[in-house]
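User: Fold this; tokens only.

Assistant: Input:
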Amino acid sequence: MFAYDLTTVILVISVIALGGVVKGVSGIGLPIVTIAGLSTFLPIHLVLALSAIPIVMTNLWQAVHSGSWMEPLRRFWPMIVCLLAFIFVGARLAVTIDEQMFFAILGSVVVIFTLTTFLKPTLRLSPRAERWGGPVAGALGGLLGGVSTIWGPPMVMYFVMLHLPKDVFVRTVGLIWFSASIPLIIAYVDNGILNA
């Protein structure tokens, strides 16, 4: 990072700050903003490394201020377990896929997420579907998060289909996003993306 000129450093700080504002307003979105913005002028593995620490810090802040974790932990523990396991799988893929594939995966997820948010589907998951839907959303989120730091879209779509009340949504996202942050750092240190 120190090999870059002052203009680049200011741009990096500005993009990360913009991502922080988006997350502060909506509770999600920091990685999408930072990956999209920084990858236009930096190598993708450096972008992932630069995004990792702000993700941990903002998710810690969100988790601490979101209220009690017990209800979401009891309800969504299978999702969390799958998320954490698949973050390591995704992080392994992050160092093997080329940039073209990375952007194809990321672009597809963002388009699908945007369309489903825009169309506001009225699907509602039954309690029976919730049992298997959570682990599937967690696994997809973990895989995507390990590759790109963006684990939110599959799980947010799942939460929308559960019609969670706003306060439950905020507590759940706070817990799950923070619980994924630390394994992401560990996985990125292990695969060499995050280093001194």
